[in-house]
């Protein structure tokens, strides 16, 4: 049950961070060291709000080899899901990711 809540908290942080990409303010998500081992090689899914569609289905995979993938599907649009592959670094329990030269702090 703890893992379920941990996954929800991490997914929520990722989603909130991805929503704020256009703004200058980026809120880091602090992850407890005990949770770090449970987040690798898992899929984190959620639907984030979208101003001009019903929602953005988002899936994030974080891998131990310092890679990360993010897939986004805009509901109600006739387009394929878009997947971006990037890398991550961990600094003081903060994930700093880069997707195709787009820097995001998780």
From TrEMBL:
<dbReference type="Pfam" id="PF04170">
    <property type="entry name" value="NlpE"/>
</dbReference>
<dbReference type="InterPro" id="IPR007298">
    <property type="entry name" value="Cu-R_lipoprotein_NlpE"/>
</dbReference>
<protein>
    <submittedName>
        <fullName>Copper resistance protein NlpE N-terminal domain-containing protein</fullName>
    </submittedName>
</protein>
